[in-house]
């Protein structure tokens, strides 16, 4: 055989190996030159149209971020935690004054990434602190004394940290760690051990058990059992569903499972996982906001780890597509990862740690927090995710436009998540068709205008969990019933709303949603509320129609007026209102009827992003048209 022939054979073999690695994450049918086959994904047509439009995209500007930028956030965050580390290695939360949940193992893993990247030397004092955190985490795992009974969350970051530190430590230290990992009694450590009907926690500890098995500390039997039981929680769009239909906890287990495939899980469930996770990765790509944010929906929304987990999944699929030689898809996923990272960069505090929820209140206020939101824990969870994103990132992939940039779609994800996402040319809207009333009202809950400020759109509605006076407010209509009582669409639970897609192209995304509602009160009657929403030329135009309403009508717009640090500049002039914060803003205008005046309620309502007031207009006509545009 000639040298030339040998070179060709080697090149062909390498190409086959690269493709094989890619198809561990991407179904082979998705790599067809003709595009994604129709029966492979409910969004096949959207994906194929997007890839065609991607080639025509104009005025695209990359973020300028790269793989090393993950390390910058990780480094700043873990250094902010040093002052909270006690003599045993645990991270003590400065607000709660105790170690909380899985902060310490995530700290260990985050520091390990800095070592693995040569960002810091293995003998650096920070690296030694990371090893100390790993050691105490393992001790607590063996003793089943982890804080808050959150052992399910320990094993994944602990094993990732262990594999990183392993080459650098003494034989004595390694033997100590090995003995501890061998000694873990999972039935005592995991709160959801062997519970098939539990939520995402099961998949979190299952992913950890995969890493223990991969390193030879146990077998794969339990992993296979739990994966098989959990597959029924996936929807046809590849989304993971649990109680409340939370969007953060759709992606949360998927980022662990995607990591398993990336780390060469090849068990009996690999084909099914590949099928669901590839689908879910594309669905997440279409749901992402042009500002890089995960869609809002139910508990744990607006936490910065939402975007960190996007980084993980998007980097994994960027890398997979790159290995398959698919530059367009790889570039779109890389872009989405970098937009997620860029979003996180907006929420860094002066000490290098993050605001764990997207507002700027002091951490002691816990504003917008869940009962389980903890400053140290959720910062270290985010950096542990970024450590994975760094590990899985391919720096040679160039950013190309993603669906968030180009738009051209209306995406109803109604069953079971009761959401609609629409985007035209990078202006984006999220609608909740049946708000849970605890976290999200019914109606328009997010408007992210290209060139505007993401938190001013608004970026979520108002509901009872955050706003303790139990009011639900969304951008949308109210009306008076026969008794003169005001009824709000935002407060309605309506599973039977009808959604119609009217336009879905890069110039216009337009849909109509019809709500048939029984008026509350002694004299119950039927009313129909029709909302027709159009996104075009960077502008959102909404037409509300009222049928069967005998009283007056109103339109409300929740306005963020304070983000915990800065006051929003609010201006109202007759039928127009505007908000401006840090040079970016949004303008709200009632276009018809012409004789409408906007007023402020002069209230302070708690919201994930800060404090809101409400602008409203009252009128008697059966139709109102209003618009939102960016204000710069």
Describe the fold and architecture.
This protein is an alpha+beta fold and about 625 residues long. It is built from 16 helices and 18 strands. It has helices at about 5-25, 45-55, 70-80, 105-115, 125-145, 155-165, 170-185, 185-190, 200-215, 220-230, 250-260, 270-285, 305-325, 325-345, 375-390, 405; strands at about 405-415, 420-425, 425-430, 445-450, 475-480, 485-490, 500-505, 510-520, 525-535, 540-545, 555-560, 570-575, 575-580, 585-590, 600, 605, 610-620, 625-630. A hairpin with a 2-residue loop joins strand 12 and strand 13 (about 575-580). Helix 5 crosses helix 6, helix 11 crosses helix 12 (about 270-285) and helix 11 runs parallel beside helix 13 (about 305-325).
Keywords, separated by commas or semicolons:
18 strands; 6-stranded antiparallel β-sheet; 8-stranded antiparallel β-sheet; alpha+beta; single chain; 632 residues
How do the helices and strands line up, and which of them pair or pack?
Elements lengths: L2 H21 L20 H13 L11 H14 L21 H14 L8 H19 L11 H11 L5 H13 L2 H4 L10 H15 L6 H10 L17 H15 L7 H18 L17 H19 L3 H19 L29 H18 L10 H4 E7 L5 E6 L2 E6 L10 E6 L27 E5 L5 E3 L9 E7 L3 E11 L7 E11 L2 E9 L5 E10 L6 E5 L2 E6 L2 E9 L6 E2 L4 E3 L2 E10 L3 E9 L1
Antiparallel strand pairs: 1-2, 2-3, 3-4, 5-6, 5-11, 7-8, 8-9, 9-10, 10-18, 11-17, 12-13, 13-14, 14-18, 15-17, 16-17
Helix pairs in contact: 1-13, 3-4, 3-15, 4-5, 4-6, 4-15, 5-6, 5-7, 6-9, 9-10, 9-11, 11-12, 11-13, 12-13, 13-14, 13-15
Mean pLDDT: 94
Structural class, by secondary structure, is alpha+beta
Number of strands: 18
Q: What Rg do the Cα atoms give?
A: 25 Å
The helix fraction, in percent, is 25-40%
Report the major sheet. 8 strands, antiparallel
Poorly predicted spans: 1-17
Distance between the terminal alpha carbons, to the nearest Å? 67 Å
Question: What is the global morphology?
Answer: globular
Order of strands, main sheet, comes to: 7-8-9-10-18-14-13-12
Q: What's the total helix number?
A: 16
Question: In percent terms, what proportion of residues is strand?
Answer: 15-25%
